[in-house]
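Design review, sub-item: ligand-bound model
Attendees: FS, YL, KQ
YL presented the inputs for the 2-acetamido-2-deoxy-beta-D-glucopyranose complex:
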Amino acid sequence: MKGHCKILVFQTYNGLVAIGSLVFFVVAMSCAFLYLFPSVPPVVNSYPVSNSSSSATDKCDVFEGRWIQDESYPLYNASECPFTEIGFNCFANGRKDGGYAKWRWKPKNCDIPRFDVRAVLEKLRGKRIVFVGDSLSRTQWESLICLLMTGVEDKKSVYEVNGKKITKQIRFLSVHFSSFDLRIDFYRSVFLVQPASVPIRSPKRVKSTLRVDKLDDISQEWIDSDILIFNSGKSLKLGMPITTGFRIALNTWSSWVETMVNTNRTSVFFRTFESSHWSGRNHNSCKVTKHPWSSSWGKDRSTISDIIIKIVKKMKVPVTILHVTPMLSFRSDGHVGTWSDNPSVPDCSHWCLPGVPDMWNEILLNLLPGNQVSLK
Ligand SMILES: *[C@@H]1O[C@H](CO)[C@@H](O)[C@H](O)[C@H]1NC(C)=O
Ligand SMILES: *[C@@H]1O[C@H](CO)[C@@H](O)[C@H](O)[C@H]1NC(C)=O
Ligand SMILES: *[C@@H]1O[C@H](CO)[C@@H](O)[C@H](O)[C@H]1NC(C)=O
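KQ shared the predicted structure:
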């Protein structure tokens, strides 16, 4: 994560490459402010979801609610699912308290129906689902595959089409549920926009650059899909001014969706900032709790999420915001902590599987067209 601070953002104006303004340069240097989020007073209610989303959300904001204990969870065993990467399988890595996997999200004004794997698999028959984003997107991809595999008898009928293994840097993974003609793909594209080469006279600390005016060149491969789920937000960790870069990148993304994606066919989702729970003065200690926090401690707000919501609301085509920031703010218990493949580096950003990301998928599946979140 710390590697991402060495970034210089620049933009093209009428073909002329104007190398990152002094502002962005300063931003790249300000890694010291890595985890200094702007402090926002706690807000009790979550944001309303975009009006352009499906009808279900017009009646009920599924992202406003609370976590309740449910002994029928978790919905799968990560050790029995070949698509949970070892780094997220906290149980296998020695985590003894299993309570973190026994919570379910309860929206205030409606209920998320009990996960019915056979019905979901039938609904997804013949579809292509594409996740695009960073490692948290990969977590959601793994979670969805493991959730769905509980409904497949012949586990060998579910496989990565190129026989590839899950790694942290892998750019593309495609899992085929052959008995359902269903594909679930993951594309690593941390900033969604195009990585670029480092300009010759850049300072040594600049390790990578981005062209915020151009979408990632693999974006062509995302178009032919039925469900397209994005996330992005790493740049927040660079401090305030980088939000300018994020805003431009997200506008590039929104124009791309408007012009390239046929939203009559493809349901497009954008997941908001995934609250992390780093603590301490330098925001580098990680204390994973046994139970969720009873207060969000202000983590239910995020500048990145505000930008995402604002840009998506202005779009000409329907895009559903998966506004997970408020629901995650309580889940100080759900992180990987030291129960990863590298216990010497505590992790208060990523989540254990099974666990919190499973709920993102339950919600996602209920926001698909033709579904209605059942009202009280
Ligand atoms: C959503 O639309 C309704 C009516 O169509 C309107 O009253 C409401 O203010 C809108 N909400 C937002 C957040 O834009
Ligand atoms: C998951 O499965 C493994 C292997 O089959 C088993 O050892 C383990 O106890 C199971 N975990 C839970 C939490 O049930
Ligand atoms: C999507 O549907 C609308 C309304 O039915 C139609 O006007 C539009 O041409 C369609 N767009 C595409 C790309 O098929």
